[in-house]
Design a protein that fits this description.
It contains eight helices and seven strands. By secondary structure, it is an alpha/beta fold. It has one domain: Vaccinia Virus protein VP39 (Rossmann fold), CATH 3.40.50.150. Helix 6 links the parallel strand 4 and strand 5.
């Protein structure tokens, strides 16, 4: 789907105090940026921001960073953010996800959310898929040792691909469901994105997986 360009989106984002403008300067100092030592959760590809804005509202004890590469999409999230000035635990970034290790230092992030990511259906674009082993390698560089990645989608092909990437990437599948909204455990506390609400209303099952890094057994070292 072609994105509609919104005039002045770049300019508005560049002037917003809710968007970190030179994110590489904050690497290793995100807790100072937030002014506390709360854990940091990030959403990669946040779209219009419904999910992460609601999460920040529901969990003031956690700091959130929403990442979106397209300024015209980020602008919509920013408009939501500006109506919730009471939030003190949410910043946005307009960057490409490939830059994550340049933006966050080792052990700086506790959890990463991937919600309804672009499926990049052509085989030659597999490395661009956010749950690919290439991106899992990037997440590995910024997560705390017991950090997790949570991935939701209605795209069964992309979900199957993500499941196949877990073990070769050296990660472990902690939890998995092919029908989130009928899973009594994984659906607890679930916050829906705009896409999730749309797709589930059409009867599409929502798939979810939670993965973590594989731990080395000290006895085998």
């Amino acid at each position: 789907m072609r994105l509609r360009n919104i005039p002045r989106a770049d300019e508005i984002i560049a002037e917003s105090s809710y968007v970190i403008q030179d994110a590489k300067t904050v690497r290793g100092a995100w807790k100072q940026a937030f002014g506390n030592d709360h854990p940091i959760h990030i959403e990669v590809g946040m779209g219009k921001g419904r999910f992460i804005t609601q999460m920040a509202f529901d969990h003031p004890e956690i700091n959130y960073v929403g990442i979106e590469r397209y300024s015209s999409v980020l602008l919509r999230a920013l408009e939501k953010r500006e109506t919730m000035t009471e939030l003190q635990n949410l910043f946005f970034l307009c960057i490409d996800a490939r830059e994550l290790p340049e933006i966050f230092a080792e052990n700086e992030v506790e959890r990463i959310y991937l919600n309804f990511s672009d499926p990049w259906p052509k085989d030659r674009h597999a490395k661009r898929r956010l749950p690919s082993r290439e991106f899992l390698s990037r997440y590995d560089k910024i997560l705390v040792p017991d950090g997790t990645v949570e991935f939701k989608t209605d795209n069964r092909g992309l979900f199957d691909f993500a499941l196949e990437e877990v073990e070769p990437a050296g990660w472990i599948l902690k939890a998995c469901t092919f029908d989130l909204h009928h899973d009594g455990v994984l659906s607890e506390g679930n916050v829906m994105t705009e896409y999730e609400e749309k797709f589930s209303a059409l009867g599409n099952p929502i798939h979810k997986m939670i993965v973590c890094r594989e731990k080395n057994d000290p006895a085998q070292d």
